[in-house]
UniProtKB/TrEMBL annotation:
E.C. no: 3.7.1.3
Biological source species: Sedimentibacter hydroxybenzoicus DSM 7310
Function: Catalyzes the cleavage of L-kynurenine (L-Kyn) and L-3-hydroxykynurenine (L-3OHKyn) into anthranilic acid (AA) and 3-hydroxyanthranilic acid (3-OHAA), respectively.
HAMAP family associated with the record: Kynureninase
Name of the protein in its database record: Kynureninase
Lineage: Bacteria, Bacillati, Bacillota, Tissierellia, Sedimentibacter
Length: 426
C-alpha cells in the first residue's frame, strides 16, 4: 500500500504533497523541538487560544449575563460543542455532550447502565487498558453492594499487547450485564473491533461502552454503525483541548428515557431548570447526564480545536496519521532495528491507532536522551517509547529528523549518560 524511500528529499516531497501541511502553522511549536507526545497532551493552537481569550473578554464584559446575552450565550455551550464533536464519531448532535472528566463520566455511565441482580451482576473489562477505567468500575461495583473481586470479570490478554475479541465474546456469559473496553489500547495502539464486540454483547442482552481517549481525534468512528450504548473520552490528547480539559460523553439515543445514575441540576429539563423544583426532571438527550455547571474556560479552547477539525476533515486527518505512522515504522525497520529497536503496535492500518509503540530494553535511558536532543516522546513502563506524529502539526520531515537524532543517540551511546530511574510522571 505504501511505497516509501529513504532520505530527506523523499520526506520533503511527502510534505510538499500533504494537503494538511498548512495547519502546522496554526500551532505553537518550540523551535527545533520534535513533539511526538500529542497522544498524551496535544499542542496549543492559535485557534484554541482565540476562544479562550474570547471567553475571558465575555466574562469581563458581561458578568452574569455571559450565560444568556446574545453576544455570549454560554448557558448551553456544552450542547454547541457536542454538536461540533458528534461528526468525529458519526453520532447525532443530541447524543454527545461535554462534561466533567473521563473518570467521572465512567462513573456516570456505570451508575446508569449497571443494574446488577443476584444472577446477573458481572462487568467485563480487559487487563491492559488504562487503569482509571478499572478503578472507577471497581468502586461502582462496591457502591452497588457487590464484591468487585467476584463481579469484575477481567479478560486477560494473551500477549500483554492486544485484546482478542473472541476471548471477550467467550466471556459474555449469562451472568454478565455490562462490558467496558477501550477503543484503542494506550500502549500498543491496537483498535479492537468495536462493531463485532457490540453485536455480540447485544445478542446476549448486555450493555457495552467504550473509552475513546486514545482514538478520538485521530480515528473516525461510526457510532450509527457500531451502535454501542455509551462512550467516554478526554479532549486533551488528539483533540488538543488543553491540559485537563473537559471530557466527552456519548449516550445512545435509544437510552434517553433511562434515568441518569448520577443526577445534577445541569441534567434537568432546560425548560424547567430555573424553576428550581426539588424533584429532578431529567432532559431526554445526552445533556440529561450533565451534573454540575461546567467550566467555560475549560470548554473554550475545544471550540477552536474543533473548528480546525471541521476544516481539515477527520477522514483526511486519519489518512495522514496512518501514513505518518506507517512511514515511522518503515524508518524503524530500515534504520533503527540494528540498535535493538522494535515496535509492538499493529501494522495493519485498520487495526492501528495514531501512535507507534517503539520498544527497547533500555527505553528509560533512551527516552531521557531523546528529550536532551529536543525530542518529546512518551515513556510507558517498562520498555515502550510511544511516538505520536500528529496529522495537524507533524511533518514527514519531522519524523525523518527524529529517527536521525535517535540514530545519533545510539551511535554515540548518549543514553549511557543517564540513569534508569523513571520520574513520577513518566
Amino acid at each position: 500500500m505504501y511505497n516509501f524511500n529513504d532520505g530527506l528529499d523523499f520526506a520533503r516531497q511527502m510534505d510538499f504533497n500533504d494537503e494538511l501541511k498548512n495547519f502546522k502553522e496554526r500551532f505553537y511549536i518550540r523551535k527545533d523541538v520534535l513533539y511526538m507526545d500529542g497522544n498524551s497532551l496535544g499542542l496549543c493552537s492559535k485557534d484554541a487560544e482565540k476562544y479562550v481569550y474570547k471567553a475571558l473578554e465575555d466574562w469581563k464584559t458581561y458578568g452574569i449575563d455571559i450565560w444568556t446575552d446574545e453576544n455570549a450565550n454560554y448557558f448551553l455551550y456544552q450542547d454547541k460543542l457536542g454538536s461540533m464533536m458528534a461528526p468525529l464519531i458519526n453520532a447525532d448532535a443530541e447524543e454527545v455532550t461535554l462534561c466533567a472528566s473521563t473518570t467521572i463520566n465512567i462513573h456516570q455511565a456505570i451508575a446508569t447502565f449497571y443494574h446488577p441482580t443476584a444472577s446477573r451482576n458481572k462487568i467485563i473489562m480487559d487487563d491492559i487498558n488504562f487503569p482509571t477505567d478499572k478503578y472507577a468500575v471497581y468502586s461502582q461495583i462496591k457502591l452497588h453492594g457487590y464484591n468487585p473481586d467476584e463481579c469484575l470479570k477481567v479478560v486477560k490478554s494473551r500477549d500483554g499487547n492486544f485484546i482478542y475479541e473472541d476471548d471477550v465474546i467467550e466471556a459474555m456469559t449469562d451472568d454478565v450485564c455490562l462490558v467496558l473496553l477501550p477503543s484503542a489500547l494506550y500502549r500498543s495502539s491496537q483498535l479492537p473491533d468495536m462493531k463485532k464486540l457490540t453485536k455480540a454483547a447485544h445478542e446476549k442482552g448486555i450493555y457495552i461502552g467504550f473509552d475513546l481517549c486514545h482514538s478520538i481525534g485521530s480515528v473516525p468512528h461510526d457510532f450509527k454503525d457500531i451502535d454501542c450504548d455509551f462512550a467516554v473520552w478526554c479532549t486533551y490528547k488528539y483533540l488538543n483541548g488543553g491540559p485537563g480539559s473537559i471530557a466527552g460523553l456519548y449516550i445512545n439515543k435509544k437510552h434517553f428515557d433511562m434515568e441518569p445514575g448520577l443526577a445534577g441540576w445541569q441534567g434537568n429539563n432546560k425548560e424547567t431548570q430555573f424553576d428550581l423544583n426539588q424533584e429532578f426532571e431529567h432532559a431526554r438527550y445526552a445533556g440529561g447526564w450533565q451534573t454540575g455547571t461546567q467550566s467555560i474556560l475549560s470548554m473554550a479552547p475545544i471550540e477552536g480545536s474543533l473548528k480546525l477539525f471541521e476544516e481539515a476533515g477527520i477522514n483526511n486527518v486519519r489518512k495522514k496519521s496512518l501514513t505518518l505512522t506507517a512511514y515511522l515504522m518503515y524508518l524503524i525497520d530500515t534504520k533503527l532495528k540494528k540498535y535493538g529497536f522494535s515496535y509492538s503496535n499493529p501494522t495493519i492500518d485498520e487495526r492501528r491507532g495514531g501512535h507507534v509503540a517503539l520498544e527497547h530494553d533500555d527505553a528509560i535511558r533512551i527516552t531521557k536522551a531523546m528529550k536532551e536532543n529536543k525530542i518529546v516522546p512518551d515513556f510507558r513502563f517498562p520498555n515502550i517509547i510511544r511516538l505520536a506524529p500528529i496529522a495537524l502539526y507533524t511533518s514527514f520531515e519531522d519524523v525523518y529528523e527524529m529517527v536521525e537524532r535517535i540514530m545519533k543517540i545510539m551511535d554515540n551511546k548518549e543514553y549511557e549518560n543517564f540513569d534508569s530511574n523513571r520520574g513520577i510522571v513518566a
